[in-house]
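hi!! sorry for the late reply, been swamped w classes. u asked for the two structures so here they r. pasted raw, havent cleaned anything up. first the sequence of the first protein and right below it the tokens
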Amino acid sequence: MTTAIKPKLTLEQFLKLPETEPASEFINGEIIQKPMPQGEHSTIQIDLCEAINQVAKPQKIAKAFPELRCTFGGQSIVPDIAVFRWARIPFLPSGRIANRFEIHPDWAIEIVSPEQSQTKVLEKLLYCSRNGTELGWLIYPDEESILAVFAGQKVELYKGADRLPIIDGIELQLTVETVFSWLSFG
């Protein structure tokens, strides 16, 4: 179960608080601490980041970031994976990557943990969609399905051998079966 605390503070005040482990998010005026990732969640998260970065990073198309704080539209969220097109990644004048991402991700990916509210996680992806995110994935390990949220908040469910939608420019072909095959080491 996620913990919600009704704050009497602003987004700016929230951002000055020390980081928590696991991360806390500021959504709809509430501070919500994410659940601690477990085995399935961590496996999908790392393997999916690697799959995306393997094809998108060398050509400077995009980069997938695990657990990256994204602050935009009056909220501060930490998607399980935030993918940014290369041209939108904030860099410092020195060429180093910025620490603060005050923009929406191009592709936001959430993996539902057993104790997490599916409605709250979907609400976060819909918020991203309303604020410019091109694609969202809501991954359900228990059901081995993936819900995609497109621009305009169109929603589609994918299962089995269904080929998953990917943001334009990333030459990656994944099926739902492929994503969940990463959970088996045998």
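now the second protein. again sequence first, tokens right under
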Amino acid sequence: MSGRLLRLACAAAVTAGIVLAPVPAAAVPEPGSGADRSVAGLLTDLQRLYREAEKATETYNGTEERLRAQRAVVRRLDAELARTRLSLRDSRGAAGRLARQQYRNSSDLSPYLRLLLARDPQRALDQGHVLGQLARDRAETVGRLAGNERKADELAGRARKALEEQAALAKRQAEERDGVRERLRAVEELLASLTPGELAALAEFERSGIAEAQERFMASGALGDDDKPSAAGERAVRFAVEQLGKPYEWGAEGPASYDCSGLTSVAWERAGTPVPRTSQEQWARLERVPLDELRPGDLVVYFPEATHVAIYLGDGMVVQAPRPGAEVKVSPIAANPVLGAVRPDPGGEPLRRYTPPRLPEGAADGSDEGYADAYAPAAPETSIR
């Protein structure tokens, strides 16, 4: 839906850009409207909408992850309840057999009188031991029965509560899915309203802004010399590079398409180190590393709310799933405002030898699309922490 329209818009921008590249970036007139629309303003609006869409996507992803975990809880409780009910049935059967046996062996005489009147006192004593053991067995069976009944009641209550929580998460997930779609429709509407000249100027303005942001970022000294990756980091990078050219799709975890955190989480899962599903959780739960200690495979997190993430490739470049309508690509690290970096395997020893993966032709082609004002001069400085 959104990807098709966005790709058409990008194609129009490329076609129009051949003719309209010299258009000034200050303002582009809309034919027939009698009004000017600022390219900077258009880019800001577009980035804001993209950022809202990605924020909604990561919220949806987080709920999806919780729903997946809750379904596992429901399955586990259901299985445990089934086992407990089976044990309860067996305990009730054993209690019934003991009750029938007690009824058949009942007598009004006390064990003391039975011993005095017995022709064979030793046999009577032996029978007493047997009866005592049967009494203890009855007590244990009754205790088991009562315990199983309590456990079954408790598990039934927990299973009902878990199922209610699952239903609430499923409802929330549906609402969040509708929210993502609504924000993507807003992106489509804005793109559909632009003329070919505006699209071309917008693309050029974005490219020049990212180039300037990257130059400032690299000149700031934020990055040091790249360390060599760990063995797992190398596997994660190579997996990410193998995904180049696959389309972005919100909520996707491969193998045909990915969103930003879907790519990073699957890459590290394939490397043997599972990480949280969303960019916010990756930022919150993984160990943070200074930018000047980055090594390939580390995750670079963007925006104050940690709503975007990419895999560090080396030499100031990342592999990312940028946005709806785009494809997995290689981008400058400063294509979006950097929040910081995290390392999924902080204990992983760097490789002694490392050869970066060979990138296919066109790996860096296409829009790097920022989701907010990535071109503010202060952006690189505020992110170095």
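hope this helps!! also noticed smth abt the second:
Strands lie at 28-29, 36-37, 287-289, 299-302, 308-314, 317-320, 329-332, 338-343.
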